Amino acid sequence: MEILGFAAGPYKTNCYVVVGDGEVAIIDPGMHSHDDLVEYITGNGLEVDKIVLTHGHIDHTRDAGTVARRFNAPVYIHPEDAFFLEAYKGSGSKTANLFDADNMVTPPDLRELRDGDIITLAGTEFRPAHAPGHSPGCTLLVGAEYCFSGDVLFKGSIGRTDFEFADEELMNRSLRTVVLQLDDSLQILPGHGPTTTMRAERMGNPFLRALTRSTATE
């Protein structure tokens, strides 16, 4: 398995391409990722098996429908975040305008990403782990060596909870019961910013350290 990544769109959202056995799985194709993905995939004679969305925010999903139609691939998202794929259209918000939401293509084959199920990305098994807080359907993709953490966990930080549909209490619960349970050996591939490791975040991430200290004093 090989993992490639690049930042796309106004918010520099990380789009990942998982390659193995001649197949490709795409994670979080944000705005302006379509052309780069088409060039790489067609140029290397690969087949797109599936597209997976860690959550429904438009900076992670903007080109999902366009890429899905180009490669006739299903799109997976947690059911609690599926509404986001239409929510920005017609809203007239600054975010909607920035991402040209009204021209966003709806994925033609939308499938549920369920907590605890096994999903195969280019021949390698990952376990979706529901971790709400940043959004209702935020989901980690946890493998034997890598974890795609979306906007739940970043290097030195965590996802914001001051957005509509976000929930700080749920985020703290997800950090305690999902993130802090991850194996230290995992490479963390976040939705924004550089990669990190679970060991480094357990030791140095101030948000995780605060939760660890509060748990120890309870």
Provide the fold topology:
Elements: E1 2-8, E2 13-20, E3 23-27, H1 34-43, E4 47-52, H2 58-61, H3 64-71, E5 75-77, H4 84-87, H5 94-98, E6 110-112, E7 119-121, E8 124-130, E9 139-142, E10 146-150, E11 153-154, E12 157-158, H6 168-177, E13 187-190, E14 196-197, H7 198-204, H8 206-217
Parallel strand pairs: 3-4, 4-5, 5-6, 10-13
Antiparallel strand pairs: 1-2, 2-3, 7-8, 8-9, 9-10, 11-12, 13-14
Return the structural class. alpha/beta
Question: Radius of gyration over alpha carbons?
Answer: 17 Å
Q: How do the SSEs run, as a string of H and E?
A: EEEHEHHEHHEEEEEEEHEEHH
Unreliable stretches: none
**N- to C-terminal separation?**
42 Å
Mean pLDDT over the full residue set: 96
| Topology, number of strands | 14
Largest sheet: 6 strands, mixed
Q: Please, how many helices?
A: 8
Helical residue percent?
Answer: 25-40%
How much of the sequence lies in strands comes to 25-35%
Overall geometry: globular
Describe this structure in words.
The chain is an alpha/beta fold. 28% of the residues lie in helices and 28% in strands. The protein has eight helices and 14 strands. The strands form three sheets. Strands 1-2-3-4-5-6 form a six-stranded mixed beta sheet, covered by helices on one side. It is globular and about 50 Å long. The termini are far apart.
Question: Summed up, what is this model?
Answer:
The chain has 218 residues and is an alpha/beta fold.
